[in-house]
Amino acid sequence: MEIVFLNRLSKRNEQGQELFAQVWIGQHDGVWSAGWSTQHSLDESTDDLWYEGSLWQELLHVYRHELALKMAEGYRPLIHGVFHEQEGAAGRGQTLQKLYCYSDLFPRDDVYEQLTMWRRQKAAAERKAPYFIATNRLLRLISVYLPHTEEELLELPGMGQVKISQYGPELLAITTQNDRTTPFPLNWVTETLDEEVFLSWLYKQKETQYKQELNKFSLTKTIIEGISDGLTLEHIGLKAGLHRREMIEAVEHLDRDGIDMEKLIRQELVNVSEEEQMAIWSAYEELGDTLLKPVMLRVYGEEQAAETGLDQVYERLRLIRIRFRHQVASDRHAG
């Protein structure tokens, strides 16, 4: 095997002893492999094979996820750039990450609960999804740093002037009722946060990110292979461990990513009459494709939709909507 990448890492255990390991990527006859070697002595080590296969992109997803786990445990590389990507942000970007880190390490759950209750009430009153009011991360920042003025609110990432004009007084009504032990401005966070603690937190965030990317890659691969093999949505879902509704969502996401889903759509609609498909298409032309319920009511009506099965009806609507949006985009491009 030809080693194309090798790096040495080390960490100190609780007894202060320095532990060493190596991470590597190799290639032989078109087969890629990646792994980890924990060194016990100069001539003794334990090897862990992370990946062996033909796909470089798949190797990178597995490699990055496994390496982030090791670095979250405290291992640090001799040479930087181990993730084979543009390394993390500096300056303003790192300052923001440290604000997030501190808020995760020193939570104020009592205040956070007050803020999430306020968000639920506000979302219900305005008929919006809660994350449109404020994300969990933003509420966590507010609960920890407890701004007392609109100027202090503006120091938090995610708080702009528009959001402050909408919700600032209500947020401050909550935060000012709680005692705080840290001041504004927040430049003290960078000085206070231990660098090793921050790095371990950062690599845990990377581990979560890489895990999501690996799952997405694996699902994409399973769906593409299933379509190539002529499998139905049901069978692909069984291989991927997803329910039909989750599979439809995955198909929509992959279509937006530019992957051709027409073969699968054609197979899933084979038992849907041309007349029914044209009725759905016409409803989209008249009502638009943003909301499905008006289209469902126009084509089927509540009674027929219930008889057919709402899940099945909405599945057909979503599959035909993919085709419809492609046609609209094609017409717009041609025009």
Tell me about this structure:
The protein folds into 4 domains: 2-56; 92-188, Orthogonal Bundle (DNA polymerase, domain 1); 210-265; 271-334. The longest helix has 34 residues, at 195-228. Helix content is 61%, strand content 13%. A 5-stranded antiparallel sheet has the order 4-3-2-1-5. The radius of gyration is 26 Å and the shape is flat. The protein has helices spanning 56-72, 92-105, 109-126, 130-133, 136-145, 150-153, 161-175, 188-192, 195-228, 233-240, 244-256, 262-268, 274-287, 292-299, 301-308, 310-334; strands at 2-12, 18-28, 31-41, 44-53, 76-77. By secondary structure, the chain is of the alpha+beta class. It contains 16 helices and 5 strands. Helix 2 crosses helix 5 (136-145) and helix 10 packs across helix 11 (244-256). Pfam families: HRDC. This is HRDC domain-containing protein.
List keywords for this structure.
single chain; 335 residues; alpha+beta; DNA polymerase, domain 1; 4 domains; five-stranded antiparallel beta sheet; 16 helices; flat
